[in-house]
Amino acid sequence: MRDLKWSPSEKIAARRAFDEALNTELGELIRKTKDMAAGIEEASELWNLESWLTQRRLEIERKYDYRYSALPLVFATLLNQRRIRESDLHGLGPEKIELILGVASQL
């Protein structure tokens, strides 16, 4: 995967798909956090929320790695989690899409 060359237009398409998936996931996290925070009645629940948020932050930071060498695996993971659709990869070259779909089928 390190040998892949990304054209300027592919970089734009990749950034668009990546940002859209990340922003959607962060929006869901914000909504869920607000719901959880609204139900807090005791200090221990506050610390549980903090712990949960820390865990989610770490998961998101591991998942969303925008190094070009990592993007095929990132997109394959996002496809499997239904965070993106194959159509969101429009603008990437056929060899990259084929690689992403192949990796996704193995996850």
Model description:
This protein is an all-alpha fold. The longest helix is centred in the N-terminal third of the chain and has 31 residues, at 8-38. The protein is elongated and about 55 Å long. It contains four helices and no strands. The mean pLDDT is 95. It has one domain (8-106). Helices cover 70% and strands 0% of the residues.
Question: Roughly how much helix do the residues carry, as a percent range?
Answer: over 70%
Order of helices and strands: HHHH
What Rg is obtained from the alpha carbons, in whole angstroms? 17 Å
Q: Span between N and C termini?
A: 16 Å
Number of domains: 1
Q: What is the tally of beta strands?
A: 0
Q: What oligomerization state is this entry in?
A: single chain
List the helices and strands and how they pair.
Layout: H1 8-38, H2 43-63, H3 71-80, H4 94-106
